[in-house]
Amino acid sequence: MTTTAPTPATGATAEEFGERLFTAVLGTQLVQAAYLGDRLGFYRALAGEALTAAELAVRTGTAERYAREWLEHQAVCGVLTVDDDAAPADARRFRLPAGHAEVLTDVLSPNHVLPLARMAAGIGRHVDELAGAYRTGGGVSWADFGADARESQAAANRPLFLGALPRDYLPSVPDIDAVLRRGGRVADVGCGFGWSAIGLALAHPDVTVDGFDPDGPSIEAARRNAAEAGVGDRVRFRTTDAALAEGGYDLVAAFECIHDMPDPVSVLAAMRTMAGADGVVLVVDERVAEHFTAPGDEVEQLMYGWSITCCLPDGLAHPGSVGTGTVMRPDTLRGYARAAGFAGVDVLPIEDGFFRFYRLR
Asked: Which keywords annotate this record (predicted)?
Protein backbone atom coordinates (compact mmCIF):
# COMPACT_ATOMS: atom_id res chain seq x y z
CA MET A 1 0.00 0.00 0.00
CA THR A 2 1.21 3.48 -0.80
CA THR A 3 1.26 6.11 1.92
CA THR A 4 0.66 9.27 -0.07
CA ALA A 5 -1.36 12.11 1.36
CA PRO A 6 -4.13 13.92 -0.56
CA THR A 7 -3.89 17.52 -1.64
CA PRO A 8 -4.85 19.79 1.28
CA ALA A 9 -8.47 20.91 1.05
CA THR A 10 -7.40 24.56 0.80
CA GLY A 11 -5.56 23.79 -2.44
CA ALA A 12 -8.37 21.98 -4.28
CA THR A 13 -10.87 23.60 -6.60
CA ALA A 14 -14.54 22.63 -6.50
CA GLU A 15 -14.04 20.60 -9.66
CA GLU A 16 -11.01 18.77 -8.25
CA PHE A 17 -12.70 17.93 -4.98
CA GLY A 18 -15.89 16.96 -6.79
CA GLU A 19 -13.86 14.55 -8.93
CA ARG A 20 -12.27 13.09 -5.80
CA LEU A 21 -15.66 12.50 -4.19
CA PHE A 22 -17.05 11.03 -7.42
CA THR A 23 -14.12 8.59 -7.54
CA ALA A 24 -14.88 7.65 -3.94
CA VAL A 25 -18.48 6.89 -4.92
CA LEU A 26 -17.23 4.50 -7.59
CA GLY A 27 -15.02 2.87 -4.98
CA THR A 28 -17.96 2.55 -2.60
CA GLN A 29 -19.99 0.80 -5.28
CA LEU A 30 -17.08 -1.57 -5.92
CA VAL A 31 -16.89 -2.35 -2.19
CA GLN A 32 -20.64 -3.04 -2.08
CA ALA A 33 -20.34 -5.36 -5.07
CA ALA A 34 -17.39 -7.12 -3.46
CA TYR A 35 -19.46 -7.60 -0.31
CA LEU A 36 -22.19 -9.27 -2.36
CA GLY A 37 -19.66 -11.34 -4.29
CA ASP A 38 -18.20 -12.62 -1.04
CA ARG A 39 -21.46 -13.34 0.77
CA LEU A 40 -23.09 -15.02 -2.22
CA GLY A 41 -20.03 -17.11 -3.10
CA PHE A 42 -19.61 -15.57 -6.56
CA TYR A 43 -15.86 -15.08 -6.33
CA ARG A 44 -15.22 -18.57 -5.00
CA ALA A 45 -17.30 -20.06 -7.81
CA LEU A 46 -15.39 -18.07 -10.43
CA ALA A 47 -11.92 -18.87 -9.09
CA GLY A 48 -10.21 -21.01 -11.71
CA GLU A 49 -13.15 -21.33 -14.11
CA ALA A 50 -15.03 -19.12 -16.58
CA LEU A 51 -18.81 -19.12 -16.08
CA THR A 52 -21.90 -17.74 -17.71
CA ALA A 53 -24.51 -15.95 -15.64
CA ALA A 54 -26.73 -19.03 -15.71
CA GLU A 55 -23.91 -21.29 -14.54
CA LEU A 56 -22.95 -18.91 -11.76
CA ALA A 57 -26.55 -18.66 -10.61
CA VAL A 58 -26.94 -22.44 -10.48
CA ARG A 59 -23.70 -22.97 -8.56
CA THR A 60 -24.48 -20.30 -5.98
CA GLY A 61 -28.23 -20.71 -5.66
CA THR A 62 -28.97 -17.18 -6.83
CA ALA A 63 -31.22 -15.55 -9.43
CA GLU A 64 -29.76 -15.46 -12.95
CA ARG A 65 -30.83 -11.89 -13.70
CA TYR A 66 -29.03 -10.56 -10.63
CA ALA A 67 -26.00 -12.74 -11.35
CA ARG A 68 -25.75 -11.36 -14.88
CA GLU A 69 -25.93 -7.73 -13.75
CA TRP A 70 -23.32 -8.33 -11.07
CA LEU A 71 -21.00 -10.07 -13.55
CA GLU A 72 -21.34 -7.26 -16.05
CA HIS A 73 -20.67 -4.65 -13.36
CA GLN A 74 -17.51 -6.50 -12.30
CA ALA A 75 -16.36 -6.76 -15.91
CA VAL A 76 -17.03 -3.06 -16.57
CA CYS A 77 -15.01 -2.23 -13.43
CA GLY A 78 -12.12 -4.43 -14.58
CA VAL A 79 -12.46 -7.05 -11.85
CA LEU A 80 -13.52 -9.80 -14.27
CA THR A 81 -12.61 -10.42 -17.89
CA VAL A 82 -15.01 -11.57 -20.61
CA ASP A 83 -14.15 -14.20 -23.21
CA ASP A 84 -16.25 -12.46 -25.88
CA ASP A 85 -17.98 -9.23 -24.92
CA ALA A 86 -19.76 -9.19 -28.29
CA ALA A 87 -21.50 -12.50 -27.55
CA PRO A 88 -25.18 -12.54 -26.56
CA ALA A 89 -25.69 -11.72 -22.88
CA ASP A 90 -26.61 -15.28 -21.94
CA ALA A 91 -23.52 -16.70 -23.70
CA ARG A 92 -20.85 -14.44 -22.22
CA ARG A 93 -18.30 -16.25 -20.08
CA PHE A 94 -16.66 -14.32 -17.26
CA ARG A 95 -13.24 -15.06 -15.74
CA LEU A 96 -11.55 -14.04 -12.49
CA PRO A 97 -7.84 -13.35 -13.20
CA ALA A 98 -5.41 -15.18 -10.94
CA GLY A 99 -4.09 -12.02 -9.24
CA HIS A 100 -7.60 -10.82 -8.51
CA ALA A 101 -8.56 -14.27 -7.24
CA GLU A 102 -5.73 -14.16 -4.69
CA VAL A 103 -7.02 -10.86 -3.29
CA LEU A 104 -10.63 -12.06 -3.26
CA THR A 105 -10.45 -15.76 -2.34
CA ASP A 106 -7.05 -16.77 -0.89
CA VAL A 107 -7.71 -16.45 2.85
CA LEU A 108 -4.05 -16.97 3.79
CA SER A 109 -2.51 -14.51 1.33
CA PRO A 110 -1.08 -11.24 2.69
CA ASN A 111 -2.88 -9.67 -0.29
CA HIS A 112 -6.32 -10.88 0.88
CA VAL A 113 -7.94 -7.43 1.20
CA LEU A 114 -11.53 -8.61 0.71
CA PRO A 115 -12.28 -8.71 4.47
CA LEU A 116 -11.73 -4.95 4.65
CA ALA A 117 -14.38 -4.50 1.98
CA ARG A 118 -16.75 -6.72 3.92
CA MET A 119 -16.18 -4.74 7.09
CA ALA A 120 -16.71 -1.38 5.40
CA ALA A 121 -19.92 -2.51 3.72
CA GLY A 122 -21.13 -4.34 6.82
CA ILE A 123 -20.60 -1.33 9.07
CA GLY A 124 -22.56 0.74 6.55
CA ARG A 125 -25.65 -1.26 7.49
CA HIS A 126 -25.54 0.46 10.90
CA VAL A 127 -25.38 4.07 9.74
CA ASP A 128 -28.65 5.02 11.50
CA GLU A 129 -27.35 3.67 14.82
CA LEU A 130 -24.05 5.48 14.29
CA ALA A 131 -25.82 8.77 13.60
CA GLY A 132 -27.82 8.31 16.78
CA ALA A 133 -24.65 7.65 18.78
CA TYR A 134 -23.03 10.77 17.36
CA ARG A 135 -26.00 12.82 18.54
CA THR A 136 -26.22 11.37 22.04
CA GLY A 137 -22.58 10.56 22.79
CA GLY A 138 -23.45 6.89 23.18
CA GLY A 139 -22.07 4.04 21.15
CA VAL A 140 -22.64 1.03 18.93
CA SER A 141 -21.09 -2.07 20.46
CA TRP A 142 -19.11 -4.85 18.81
CA ALA A 143 -22.05 -7.14 19.51
CA ASP A 144 -24.37 -4.72 17.70
CA PHE A 145 -22.13 -4.67 14.63
CA GLY A 146 -22.53 -8.44 14.51
CA ALA A 147 -21.04 -11.07 12.24
CA ASP A 148 -19.81 -8.74 9.49
CA ALA A 149 -17.46 -6.86 11.81
CA ARG A 150 -16.51 -9.89 13.90
CA GLU A 151 -15.74 -12.20 10.97
CA SER A 152 -14.11 -9.64 8.69
CA GLN A 153 -11.80 -8.40 11.46
CA ALA A 154 -10.64 -11.96 12.10
CA ALA A 155 -10.24 -12.70 8.40
CA ALA A 156 -8.25 -9.51 7.78
CA ASN A 157 -5.66 -10.41 10.44
CA ARG A 158 -5.56 -14.14 9.75
CA PRO A 159 -2.73 -14.09 7.13
CA LEU A 160 -0.45 -12.09 9.42
CA PHE A 161 -1.34 -14.04 12.58
CA LEU A 162 -0.70 -17.39 10.90
CA GLY A 163 2.29 -16.16 8.90
CA ALA A 164 4.85 -13.42 9.54
CA LEU A 165 3.82 -12.68 13.14
CA PRO A 166 4.78 -16.06 14.70
CA ARG A 167 7.42 -17.03 12.13
CA ASP A 168 9.35 -13.78 11.62
CA TYR A 169 8.28 -10.84 13.77
CA LEU A 170 8.14 -12.32 17.27
CA PRO A 171 11.28 -14.53 16.95
CA SER A 172 13.22 -11.38 16.01
CA VAL A 173 12.86 -10.16 19.62
CA PRO A 174 15.43 -12.08 21.71
CA ASP A 175 13.38 -12.30 24.93
CA ILE A 176 10.29 -13.45 23.05
CA ASP A 177 12.29 -15.88 20.95
CA ALA A 178 13.63 -17.45 24.15
CA VAL A 179 10.07 -17.93 25.43
CA LEU A 180 8.98 -19.55 22.18
CA ARG A 181 12.01 -21.83 22.01
CA ARG A 182 11.67 -23.18 25.53
CA GLY A 183 7.93 -23.75 25.18
CA GLY A 184 6.73 -21.06 27.56
CA ARG A 185 3.20 -20.13 28.63
CA VAL A 186 1.59 -17.41 26.54
CA ALA A 187 -1.50 -15.33 27.29
CA ASP A 188 -3.31 -13.80 24.30
CA VAL A 189 -5.50 -10.96 25.63
CA GLY A 190 -8.37 -9.94 23.32
CA CYS A 191 -7.81 -13.02 21.17
CA GLY A 192 -10.91 -12.73 18.95
CA PHE A 193 -11.19 -15.74 16.63
CA GLY A 194 -7.92 -17.09 18.02
CA TRP A 195 -5.73 -16.86 14.92
CA SER A 196 -2.83 -15.22 16.80
CA ALA A 197 -2.86 -17.96 19.47
CA ILE A 198 -3.21 -20.68 16.84
CA GLY A 199 -0.41 -19.20 14.76
CA LEU A 200 1.94 -19.23 17.75
CA ALA A 201 1.08 -22.84 18.52
CA LEU A 202 1.53 -23.97 14.93
CA ALA A 203 4.88 -22.23 14.51
CA HIS A 204 6.23 -23.21 17.94
CA PRO A 205 5.08 -26.71 18.90
CA ASP A 206 6.23 -26.53 22.53
CA VAL A 207 4.31 -23.43 23.62
CA THR A 208 0.90 -23.40 25.30
CA VAL A 209 -1.46 -20.47 24.80
CA ASP A 210 -4.45 -19.22 26.77
CA GLY A 211 -6.70 -16.83 24.88
CA PHE A 212 -9.09 -14.39 26.57
CA ASP A 213 -11.91 -12.38 25.05
CA PRO A 214 -15.22 -11.01 26.41
CA ASP A 215 -17.09 -11.76 23.15
CA GLY A 216 -18.80 -15.15 23.39
CA PRO A 217 -19.27 -15.81 19.65
CA SER A 218 -15.58 -15.03 19.05
CA ILE A 219 -14.50 -17.52 21.72
CA GLU A 220 -16.74 -20.20 20.22
CA ALA A 221 -15.19 -19.58 16.79
CA ALA A 222 -11.68 -19.63 18.30
CA ARG A 223 -12.29 -23.03 19.86
CA ARG A 224 -13.52 -24.42 16.53
CA ASN A 225 -10.54 -22.93 14.70
CA ALA A 226 -8.05 -24.41 17.20
CA ALA A 227 -9.62 -27.85 16.93
CA GLU A 228 -9.57 -27.73 13.12
CA ALA A 229 -5.91 -26.62 13.19
CA GLY A 230 -5.03 -29.56 15.43
CA VAL A 231 -3.78 -27.45 18.35
CA GLY A 232 -6.77 -27.71 20.66
CA ASP A 233 -4.66 -29.58 23.21
CA ARG A 234 -2.24 -26.64 23.61
CA VAL A 235 -4.50 -23.66 22.97
CA ARG A 236 -7.38 -22.85 25.30
CA PHE A 237 -9.89 -20.02 25.10
CA ARG A 238 -11.98 -18.43 27.80
CA THR A 239 -14.76 -15.87 27.79
CA THR A 240 -13.45 -13.76 30.61
CA ASP A 241 -11.89 -10.44 31.42
CA ALA A 242 -8.09 -10.67 31.43
CA ALA A 243 -8.17 -9.16 34.93
CA LEU A 244 -9.57 -12.47 36.19
CA ALA A 245 -6.75 -14.55 34.73
CA GLU A 246 -4.03 -16.17 36.80
CA GLY A 247 -0.37 -15.19 36.63
CA GLY A 248 2.76 -17.11 35.74
CA TYR A 249 2.87 -16.35 32.01
CA ASP A 250 6.15 -15.99 30.15
CA LEU A 251 4.63 -13.81 27.43
CA VAL A 252 1.46 -11.73 27.72
CA ALA A 253 0.38 -10.17 24.43
CA ALA A 254 -2.47 -8.02 23.16
CA PHE A 255 -2.73 -7.99 19.38
CA GLU A 256 -4.64 -5.05 17.87
CA CYS A 257 -7.15 -4.63 20.67
CA ILE A 258 -5.96 -2.20 23.36
CA HIS A 259 -7.37 0.77 21.43
CA ASP A 260 -10.81 -0.88 21.48
CA MET A 261 -10.95 -1.34 25.24
CA PRO A 262 -13.09 1.02 27.33
CA ASP A 263 -10.63 0.75 30.26
CA PRO A 264 -7.20 -0.01 28.80
CA VAL A 265 -5.34 0.89 31.99
CA SER A 266 -6.99 -1.87 34.01
CA VAL A 267 -6.32 -4.39 31.23
CA LEU A 268 -2.66 -3.39 31.01
CA ALA A 269 -2.40 -3.63 34.80
CA ALA A 270 -3.83 -7.14 34.60
CA MET A 271 -1.32 -8.04 31.90
CA ARG A 272 1.46 -6.77 34.16
CA THR A 273 0.23 -9.06 36.95
CA MET A 274 -0.10 -12.01 34.58
CA ALA A 275 3.51 -11.60 33.43
CA GLY A 276 4.93 -11.15 36.92
CA ALA A 277 8.50 -9.99 37.39
CA ASP A 278 10.05 -12.06 34.60
CA GLY A 279 7.43 -12.25 31.83
CA VAL A 280 7.38 -10.20 28.63
CA VAL A 281 4.44 -7.86 27.98
CA LEU A 282 3.80 -7.09 24.29
CA VAL A 283 1.24 -4.77 22.73
CA VAL A 284 0.70 -4.71 18.97
CA ASP A 285 -1.50 -1.90 17.70
CA GLU A 286 -2.02 0.33 14.68
CA ARG A 287 0.99 2.05 13.14
CA VAL A 288 -0.55 5.51 13.11
CA ALA A 289 1.51 8.68 12.89
CA GLU A 290 3.23 9.78 16.09
CA HIS A 291 1.48 13.15 15.92
CA PHE A 292 -1.64 14.51 14.25
CA THR A 293 -0.87 15.97 10.83
CA ALA A 294 -3.38 16.92 8.13
CA PRO A 295 -3.63 15.73 5.49
CA GLY A 296 -2.42 12.27 6.50
CA ASP A 297 -1.19 9.34 4.45
CA GLU A 298 -3.40 6.43 3.39
CA VAL A 299 -2.77 4.36 6.52
CA GLU A 300 -3.79 7.33 8.67
CA GLN A 301 -6.91 7.84 6.58
CA LEU A 302 -7.80 4.14 6.87
CA MET A 303 -7.38 4.12 10.65
CA TYR A 304 -9.48 7.25 11.13
CA GLY A 305 -12.09 5.70 8.85
CA TRP A 306 -12.32 2.63 11.11
CA SER A 307 -12.33 4.84 14.18
CA ILE A 308 -15.28 7.06 13.22
CA THR A 309 -17.42 4.11 12.10
CA CYS A 310 -16.43 1.20 14.37
CA CYS A 311 -13.76 1.40 17.06
CA LEU A 312 -14.74 4.66 18.74
CA PRO A 313 -18.49 3.83 18.72
CA ASP A 314 -17.70 0.39 20.15
CA GLY A 315 -15.53 1.89 22.89
CA LEU A 316 -18.12 4.52 23.81
CA ALA A 317 -20.85 1.87 24.04
CA HIS A 318 -19.48 1.04 27.51
CA PRO A 319 -20.06 3.29 30.55
CA GLY A 320 -16.96 5.11 31.74
CA SER A 321 -15.01 4.43 28.56
CA VAL A 322 -11.90 6.50 27.87
CA GLY A 323 -12.89 6.48 24.18
CA THR A 324 -9.48 5.83 22.65
CA GLY A 325 -10.54 5.03 19.08
CA THR A 326 -8.40 3.37 16.43
CA VAL A 327 -5.85 6.17 16.27
CA MET A 328 -3.93 5.34 19.45
CA ARG A 329 -0.66 7.19 19.12
CA PRO A 330 2.49 5.99 20.95
CA ASP A 331 2.28 8.71 23.60
CA THR A 332 -1.28 7.68 24.40
CA LEU A 333 -0.18 4.09 25.03
CA ARG A 334 2.75 5.33 27.11
CA GLY A 335 0.32 7.24 29.30
CA TYR A 336 -1.87 4.17 29.76
CA ALA A 337 1.18 2.02 30.55
CA ARG A 338 2.48 4.44 33.20
CA ALA A 339 -0.96 4.55 34.82
CA ALA A 340 -0.96 0.72 34.84
CA GLY A 341 2.34 0.62 36.73
CA PHE A 342 4.84 0.04 33.93
CA ALA A 343 8.21 1.78 33.99
CA GLY A 344 8.29 2.49 30.28
CA VAL A 345 7.42 1.50 26.73
CA ASP A 346 9.86 0.54 23.98
CA VAL A 347 8.94 0.56 20.29
CA LEU A 348 10.43 -2.61 18.84
CA PRO A 349 12.33 -2.52 15.52
CA ILE A 350 9.76 -4.61 13.64
CA GLU A 351 8.74 -3.11 10.31
CA ASP A 352 5.13 -3.65 9.29
CA GLY A 353 3.00 -1.35 7.18
CA PHE A 354 0.01 -1.41 9.50
CA PHE A 355 1.18 -2.38 13.01
CA ARG A 356 3.59 -1.03 15.61
CA PHE A 357 5.09 -3.38 18.22
CA TYR A 358 5.54 -2.19 21.82
CA ARG A 359 7.39 -3.87 24.70
CA LEU A 360 6.13 -2.67 28.08
CA ARG A 361 8.76 -2.59 30.83
From this structure: Methyltransferase, Transferase
